[in-house]
Structure formats: structure tokens, C-alpha cells
Amino acid sequence: MEGNQKERRAISQIEEIFGEHEGYRRAHARGTGYKGTFEGSGQAMELTDAAHFRQAKVPVLVRFSHFSPDPTWADAMSPVKGMAIQFKIGPEEVTNIVSVTSPVFFTHSPERFMEMLEVSRSFQRGRPKLGELAELLMDFPEVRAMFSSVKKMTVPESFATGIYHSIHAFYFEKKGKRQAVKYLFEPEAGEDKRSLKDMKDLPFGYYEQELAERIARSPASFKLYAIIGEAGDPTDDPTRDWPKDRERVYLGRLTIEAPEAEAEQALYDPTVMTAGISCSDDPILQFRRGAYRHSYEKRIAENEGTKKH
Ligand code: HEM
């Protein structure tokens, strides 16, 4: 398939399985938008001149989300939560980080991702259960590993108390040198977890409401770190995390201050970044560019058509 054809096909496959939910993102459909600031630490200046990591404050849009492509799924059905950030570093310039509460993704190539979607089509329509999906995907060894960790998985108690990972590697670049990094956000409120079992009685929309109440009392904040890759750490395979002992550089502090409608509409393309940072050759990361653009164009057209916001 040529051009963005593959990405478009993947979006159609998602719609066939999880339903077409007009006006919503085709993944991470339900979420909540905020604005705030990011204050760079200036501690990565030897590795990159990227504007948002200098010692200065920039405005940000932040969107928290539940991973499901179906916005009607209960909070508990989406054990993985997302945090997407757009740093507004200039009048016309933004740079993004899109992160989730899992250090790894479940597949390493777009082709494999689409194969898995194909298998999942036999999935009972409407309200598929994670258990049924797990059974269907047991032939994929990488999925087996992921589901066994989901069973033991804990979920953040609040959007504001999760540890969020970029999963993919990126390069910091300066003076002809480059350094592989991954991003990690740690909540200043401390990590707070519940088991999947404890989540089943949560009311629909609990996470959005809890966050709104929390931020009405005081801002939520995260510390952002760059994990410094070493020789041999994979930069093109999102199913493989790096060893835990890697050095970290503190990049700055994210503060989330108030609800913001623009943050719900925005496109957080994980490949959009400013000078001083570049994408790794991870095929999943490259694939996301076209898939997000296509989903964005669909939902914006649908929202304009129905005036639904
Ligand atoms: C084959 C790989 C993937 C595909 C096809 C895919 C697809 C999508 C799509 C279509 C959207 C909605 C975009 C929009 O309408 O703006 C989305 C959102 C999202 N994805 Fe992915 N994704 C993939 C991998 C990942 C990975 C590896 C991560 C881990 C960081 C991730 C995290 C997110 C998050 C946090 C959002 C919500 C962003 C927002 O709030 O706007 N995705 N994904």
C-alpha cells in the first residue's frame, strides 16, 4: 500500500471493531483537556538546545485519556491511561510529547498491529471483554507477555498520579552529536495505584471528575525526565523497555492549571518536534504520524458537520 493508505486502513479496521464514534478520536476517544505551563530546568543544555528544555516557562495544552477507541467503555475497561502534551514554544511553533501509563507497546511493527486488528474482528461486537480479546490474540507471543502483565497490572488512582512513558526513543541533538532518550513523567503528588479488580465498581467518568475536583483545589504537577540510552539499548522496538538503572536528566516541571476546550480538540502528533530533537526510526512511531492526522481530519470534519463539541 502506498502513501498513507496503510494508516487509513488501520483506522478503518479500528472502526470496524470498536464502532464508528463520530466526532471522537479513533483511539483514546474519551479524555479531558487542560492548560498549564512547563518550566524547563536548563539541565539538558549539553545535549539539546530544544526551546522548552531551556530555563524558561512555556504554555502547554494537556489532554488525559482512557486508551479505548470506544468512548462508551467504562473507566475500568481502559487500564492504560494517556497524557498528551503540546508545548507552545513560539507564536506558530509547537512540540509534542504523547505518553501512557505503560512502558511498552504490544507490537513492534505496523503490519503486525494490523494483523492483530484483523484477528480481533471476530471479536463480539458492542462490548468486547478484555478476556475474550486475550484469548483471540494468544497466538502472538508479544501479546501473551503483555496480557500476563495486565493481569498483575495496577492502574493509577487518578490521572494525576500515574507514571507516564513516551515508550518510543527520540534523539537529542547538539553540535553534530546525538543521544538516544526516552521520556518519563513522575507525578509530584506521588504514584498512587489501585488493582484492576478494585476498579470495577468505579462510576463512568470517575477519572475526569476526580481530576476536575483535584485541579479546582490546586494545580497537578509532574517532573519530566529524559532517560539516557546506552549502547545496545533498542531505539526501534517499542515492545522493549530499557534497563531500569539508566541515568536520568531532569528536564523540567509540568503544571496543569485549568480546564481548556482547545486541549480536547488539538492534534498531538507524536512526531512533531522542535529543532534539537528528532524521531528515532521506530516504525510504530513513524506510522502514528499518518494515523493521527487521518483520525484528526475525520473527527474535526464530523464535529464541524454536527456542531458537536
Ligand atoms: C500502531 C500504533 C498506533 C496507532 C495506529 C495509534 C492510533 C491512534 C489514533 C488514531 C489516535 C487518535 C488521534 C487523534 O484523533 O488525534 C491515538 C491517540 C493516542 N495514542 Fe495512539 N496509536 C498507536 C500507538 C500508540 C503508542 C505506542 C502510544 C504510546 C505513547 C500511543 C498513545 C496515544 C495517546 C496517549 C493518544 C491520545 C492523544 C490525545 O489525547 O490526543 N499510541 N492513537
UniProtKB/TrEMBL annotation:
Domain of life, source organism: Bacteria
Position of the signal peptide: none
EC number: 1.11.1.-
GO MF terms, alphabetically ordered: catalase activity; heme binding; metal ion binding
SUPFAM superfamilies reported in the protein's UniProt record: Heme-dependent catalase-like
Residues binding heme: Y292
GO cellular component: cytoplasm
Pfam family, one: Catalase
Domain Catalase core: 2-309
Active-site residues (renumbered): H28
Keywords: Heme, Iron, Metal-binding, Oxidoreductase, Peroxidase
GO biological process: hydrogen peroxide catabolic process; response to hydrogen peroxide
Cofactors demanded by this protein: heme
Protein family according to the UniProt entry: Belongs to the catalase family.
Role summary: Has an organic peroxide-dependent peroxidase activity.
Protein name: Catalase-related peroxidase
Organism, scientific name: Planococcus maitriensis
